[in-house]
Amino acid sequence: xxxxxxxxxxxxxxxxxxxxxxxxxxxxxxxxxxxxxxxxxxxxxxxxxxxxxxxxxxxxxxxxxxxxxxxxxxxxxxxxxxxxxxxxxxxxxxxxxxxxxxxxxxxxxxxxxxxxxxxxxxxxxxxxxxxxxxxxxxxxxxxxxxxxxxxxxxxxxxxxxxxxxxxxxxxxxxxxxxxxxxxxxxxxxxxxxxxxxxxxxxxxxxxxxxxxxxxxxxxxxxxxxxxxxxxxxxxxxxxxxxxxxxxxxxxxxxxxxxxxxxxxxxxxxxxxxxxxxxxxxxxxxxxxxxxxxxxxxxxxxxxxxxxxxxxxxxxxxxxxxxxxxxxxxxxxxxxxxxxxxxxxxxxxxxxxxxx
Length: 355
Description:
The chain contains three helices and 20 strands. The chain is of the alpha+beta class. The longest helix is centred in the C-terminal third of the chain and has 67 residues, at 254-320. The protein is elongated.
């Protein structure tokens, strides 16, 4: 005898025998396993929040079922530590990422329908990026990935003249407080892009970005220009315009050029005259030294000559046996030059006496 037994599968029948009951319970268990499976769904587009605002990241189960007894985990780069954890019917904070302490809340108003949302207060640039929402039951788990985009509009561009460069003026545009990295551009009064001389983007301690862009303009180029800084995420920009007056450009007067040339030539002539005077003075000093040296040598030679002559005359007289009259000898020495008389050996001892 066969009888129809209630089943979740339409048209499913088994006999009243024991094997039939075994088949029935196996089918029922398979149905329960199938009904325990679910998918996790989040928004299909990034969620954009400004710095300092509140971010709401929604996540829900499909099909709808209660998640009160499930584990709901939000994490980022790794499973542990977590951004926020709901487990055993309550929120867990013991191993939460330090940067999220006191800033997260799991909104559980619709948790019986499998829908929860993560609330993040006082959004920071650090919060920018992907988040994983994971639901886990006793026998199954599934997850979804969401993306949070953090944006910040920075300050209005500040334009300043930063000195002269390459025959023109270097103009710098600065702006701070942007997220993500901004795009800075120079434009003329027609809105046409201008080539920049340099561009620098750096990250501040608070996670926001600052940008600096410069351009060199000449007197012949367009002096009316603007600097725009754009947030590519929000597609918004801020613009500042400046007009560079002609008086800022370096000018060279013809008179100044002529004066510079004259001064340069004058300096050159003075240098040449100084050099010539030094050479002439040096030549005179050299000539004077040579003359003094020659005079001294001549004086020494004359002294030696007269000394030799006097000694020879003295030897000749002694050899002849005659002694010259003192007057004669004195007269002979008187004819010697004054500077040579000390060289005569007998001159200091001679004197004139009349008998």
